[in-house]
Hints:
By secondary structure, this protein is an all-alpha fold. The chain has one domain (4-191). Helices cover 75% and strands 0% of the residues. The protein has 7 helices and no strands. α6 packs antiparallel against α7. The longest helix is centred in the middle third of the chain and has 25 residues, at 93-117. The chain is globular, with a radius of gyration of 17 Å.
Amino acid sequence: MIxxxxxxxxxxxxxxxxxxxxxxxxxxxxxxxxxxxxxxxxWNSQLYGEASLQVMFILTSLWGxxxxxKGKQTAPGPNLDAPAPLMISKLLPSEQKKAAFxxxxxxxxxxxxxxxxxGSHVAAWDALVTTLSLLAQFLLAKKxxxxxxxxxxxxxxxxxxxxxxxxxxxxxLYLIFAVLSYVGLKAWQKQHVR
Length: 194
């Protein structure tokens, strides 16, 4: 039997990714709603890293929504009093190194936390997905193309994690997310101004 909370989160999550691919700012409030629902689903499944991640998704979604609505580019816009609209861009090599370094520090720290303070049987796996998801969410909020690559890795890893935890509908959702990550990557690459 399908959990109605999981089903609602599933539907809202698909709508959210569609909005993200199309750069429609309404994807952010959909992310907030779906994260709240999946927080409940993951907590009940003892995926504490994933459940905690949903709280972070809610907070970063509020931030991302603001960025997408207000714009915050490093270069000033045509009107010097207003920020330039946020455009799709790529990470600089120095930004790539910082992102990789942050992920390499966060993963073992989060793994240690989950092993020490929760009853998780998949702490390292859960911590890796959580770490990469935070990175991907940050990159998405900044409209960096690389967010789609990170989401692709996250989604593939999460399919396995959800199957292991017998969350079949959510495993299907993350399989769809993996395909949509590739679709999003290609769509954003076409729209990227070099």
